[in-house]
Design a protein that fits this description.
By secondary structure, the protein is an alpha+beta fold. Strands 1-2-3 form a 3-stranded mixed β-sheet. The chain is globular and about 35 Å long. The termini are far apart.
Length: about 90
């Protein structure tokens, strides 16, 4: 069974309290390679490794199927800075 972007997005919103999630399927729809931006207040004060562990534990079951998962994990404040710098 293929994993979808919306499945991952829903899980990040419900389990991590994500305020912004952008997941892209990089495997042409087969659900094995994803790239994600996850913005959550739960990342406040946590180092990068701890943030990534939080995300990985959230999608532990899905990771049995997913072959590659690239992520950016930002706090809401970091996300706002990224948006302002990009524009």
């Amino acid at each position: 069974m293929a994993i979808t972007c919306s499945q991952l997005e829903d899980k990040f919103r419900s389990q991590l309290g994500a305020t912004h999630v952008d997941v892209v399927d990089m495997s042409d729809g087969c659900g094995s390679k994803f790239k994600a931006i996850i913005v959550s207040p739960q990342f406040e004060g946590k180092p990068l490794l701890q943030r990534h562990r939080l995300v990985n534990s959230t999608i532990e079951e899905e990771m049995k199927i997913i072959h590659a998962f690239e992520m950016k994990t930002w706090t809401p404040e970091q996300y706002e800075k990224q948006k302002n710098n990009a524009g």
